[in-house]
Amino acid sequence: MDLFAVMCGLWHSEPKLIFRKVPMTPAQIEFYKRLAHGLALQFGPNCEVVVHDLETEDVDHSIVVIENGHVSGRKLGDGPSHIVFESMHEGATDVHDREPYLTKTTDGKLLKSSTIFIRNDEGKPVGILGINFDITLMKAFERSLDAFTGTGGTGYTEPEPITKNIGDLLEDLLHECEQFVGKPAALMTKDERIRAIGYLDRRGAFLISKSSERACEFFGISKYSFYSYLNEAKAAAGDK
């Protein structure tokens, strides 16, 4: 080993590899133009499709393809967004696609966005396909619908069914009691049947004519068992 060379910094133990950026070729850009155009036609004028070249030497002009640029106000040759700029940093190989998330333009449009990384054979991100759908009017319409159809509660409740006759009402209540217990009547244990019959009683099911006969058939029990279960349910609820 040449000591003088080491001291002067002229000797290196290992050669260093220099990676050169390779911008998109005209053929690649043409493909992404056709892809973006097809997506824009499919989803309409509110859908912006944009392709960024992460390997370009001109960082300020990363957009190489764009359709419906009026959505975000951008055009061909414009610069990168925050996520694009971060992806251009050296060593940013662990970045992941971002599935639909909300973004907002400077003029207040609300967008549903997706970011998909284009990678080379080594897995390095070399481009980005971005899809931005303007949902501003949809969100406003959603709020209007919610104001019109909402009942003022804090959560969603199952709508009450409108029945055509009393028989349908009884069948609806029998179905409800299965949901209340969490299993079909045929699979219920004795204690679960008592809970179900207690639920039906509280809901007024047994005010319906011949409801006890239908309940016996539904639960697969005798009339004696039915009234025994009903009494147990009332006792558990504190009824006299």
Task: Please tell me about this protein's structure.
- It is a single chain.
- With 240 residues, this protein is α+β, with helices and mostly antiparallel strands.
- It has two domains: 26-140, Beta-Lactamase; 166-237, no CATH class.
- It contains eight helices and five strands, in the order ααββαβββααααα.
- It has a five-stranded antiparallel beta sheet.
- β3 (98-104) and β4 form a beta hairpin.
- The longest helix is centred in the N-terminal third of the chain and has 18 residues, at 26-43.
- The protein starts with a helix and ends with a helix.
- Mean pLDDT is 82; it is low at 1-19.
List the topology elements.
Layout: H1 3-7, H2 26-43, E1 47-53, E2 63-67, H3 82-87, E3 98-104, E4 110-119, E5 125-134, H4 136-149, H5 166-181, H6 190-202, H7 211-219, H8 223-237
Antiparallel strand pairs: 1-2, 1-5, 3-4, 4-5
Helix pairs in contact: 5-6, 6-8
